[in-house]
Amino acid sequence: MGVGGGFLMIPVMVYMLRMPLHVVIGTSLFIILFTSIEVTFLQAYTNHSVDFILAVLLLMGSTIGTQVGVAFGKRLKGEHLKLFLAAILLIVAVQMILQLILKPSILLGSN
Fold it and tell me: What pTM does this model have?
């Protein structure tokens, strides 16, 4: 699902390992960097399913987004960052539950 970095590792590092949130954010990004590079190259080599133009666009967008996130992160306290992360986790959880419960607008395979 691609949510291991933000939805599993960050809460574990913050609440179980008691790491400061500003350190956790950088550590999570550093770990995900290597995972993303490995998977991108493996998919490109084995399945030829990587669109390099799209990959470059995503890389540029994530680079800009990271710089914006760092600027906001420096201005916020650790407790505010925790609340922001909790709100994002709650929104994603509610969205996933609704997608499981509600009938989709397009049913594939039904005539």
Answer: 0.55
